[in-house]
Amino acid sequence: MTESGSAQKETPINQIDEHEARWFAVYTGFRKEKRVRDLLQKKGISCFLPLQHHTRIYTRKVKKVSIPLISCYVFVHITKREYVPVLQTEYVLQFVRFKKDLLAIPSAEIDILKRVVGELEVEIEPASLKRGDKVEIIGGQLTGLKGTLESIKGKQKLLIALETLGM
């Protein structure tokens, strides 16, 4: 009971709270992720778009490009008050849901995505590793994360299924 005598209801984890901001994913139009991010930022809405940075080599020039890590999705950190303005944003199609419920994303998962896109290149010794090995990252921005080795591609690339993300 609160001082006014009414019982205060606790908001379920997947619902939007009036006071506490939570992370949600919104589905965007095809190749409109950066535009949606910019429009949300202009509205003062906290959002995150994980980008991969690539160098593209064309016939006459070399160009650096940023490509969304997850196509057609932007993550928003909102309270109930910001729900409708997000939906009214051009190119935002809908919130990601499970059945009829909004699907909140734990802050720890967003933090992992932030670390992934800022990842540094490291050299690995593939001779001692094989597919299916349980591994732990011991250096760089993903230090401490555990997973299963899926594949090795050269001396600087490997694919690890991280236990935390379930990917």
Order of helical and strand elements: EHEEEEHEEEEHEEE
Task: Work out the radius of gyration.
Answer: 20 Å
The residue fraction in helices comes out at: 10-25%
In DSSP terms (H or I, runs of 4 or more residues), the helix count works out at: 3
The total domain count is: 2
Q: What are the low-pLDDT stretches, counting only 5+ consecutive residues below 50?
A: 1-8
Mean pLDDT: 82
Kindly provide the name of the CATH class of the largest domain. Alpha Beta
What is the CATH superfamily label of the largest domain? NusG, N-terminal domain
Number of strands: 12
CATH fold type of the largest domain: Alpha-Beta Plaits
**Percent strand:** 25-35%
Largest sheet: 5 strands, antiparallel
CATH architecture annotation of the largest domain: 2-Layer Sandwich
Kindly, what is the distance between the CA atoms of the first and last residues, rounded to a whole number of angstroms? 42 Å
Give the structural class.
alpha+beta
What shape does the CA trace take? globular
Tell me what the structure shows:
The protein contains three helices and twelve strands. The protein is of the alpha+beta class and 167 residues long. It has two domains: 1-107, 2-Layer Sandwich (Alpha-Beta Plaits); 119-167, Roll (SH3 type barrels). Strands 1, 2, 5, 6 and 9 form a five-stranded antiparallel beta sheet that branches. Strands 10-11-12 form a three-stranded antiparallel beta sheet, with no helix packed on it. It has a two-stranded antiparallel ribbon with strand order 3-4. Strand 11 (146-153) and strand 12 form a beta hairpin. Residues 1-8 have low confidence and may be disordered.
